[in-house]
Design brief:
Four Helix Bundle (Hemerythrin (Met), subunit A), single chain, 7 helices, about 180 residues
Length: about 180
């Protein structure tokens, strides 16, 4: 499993004045890679930066390089037979409230990316996937209000992250099967 550091992506996107967080960005890109093999990644990039960004600046070029790395690493991890895919989130040293906020933003980005890719509830996806997507909507609207650091909150957070991670892999597998069963045209 290859990885890219949350803090390095956050720093580069902040310097480039991105309009989304590193987690939300990764969620968008993951959705595109999951359902359209990354064909819509360029569309995501347009949503990551404001229209006023100076696309000729060195900072913007650096950010694009990091996004290319993120796309490459994410794609490799999504197809890893050992299920090595991980969400781009702060490490366990960060406050639980910060990690929950990042998870919420990741889910927002993922749902947005699915929308950009044209995924909809058109009856082709299973009820399990539709339920998981509804759960992601709920997670994307978490009430963060400075959650106390506790072992129980930590355990709940870890379970939520794992639920989202496995749900993403499951959706990718099912969507691929549905797409391959559709008639060409």
């Amino acid at each position: 499993m290859q990885s890219i550091e949350f803090t390095s992506v956050t720093e580069v996107l902040t310097r480039a004045e991105a309009s989304v967080s590193a987690s939300e960005c990764h969620g968008m890109l993951t959705a595109q890679l999951s359902v359209s093999s990354g064909k819509g990644a360029a569309e995501c990039v347009r949503h990551i930066f404001d229209d006023e960004v100076d696309s000729s600046s060195g900072v913007f070029t650096e950010a694009l390089g990091v996004l290319e790395q993120l796309i490459t690493v994410t794609h490799k991890n999504l197809v890893d037979p050992d299920l090595g895919f991980e969400l781009l989130l702060p490490d366990e040293e960060s406050l639980i409230a910060d990690r929950l906020l990042a998870l919420s933003e990741w889910c927002q980005g993922y749902l947005f990316g699915l929308g950009l890719a044209g995924v909809s509830d058109d009856g082709n996806l299973s009820s399990d996937i539709n339920e998981m997507l509804q759960d992601l909507v709920h997670i994307s609207h978490l009430d963060i209000n400075e959650k106390a650091e506790s072992e129980e909150n930590e355990k709940d957070y870890v379970e939520l992250v794992e639920y989202v991670r496995i749900g993403v892999l499951y959706l990718q597998e099912e969507y691929s099967a549905v797409k391959n069963d559709l008639p060409a045209g």
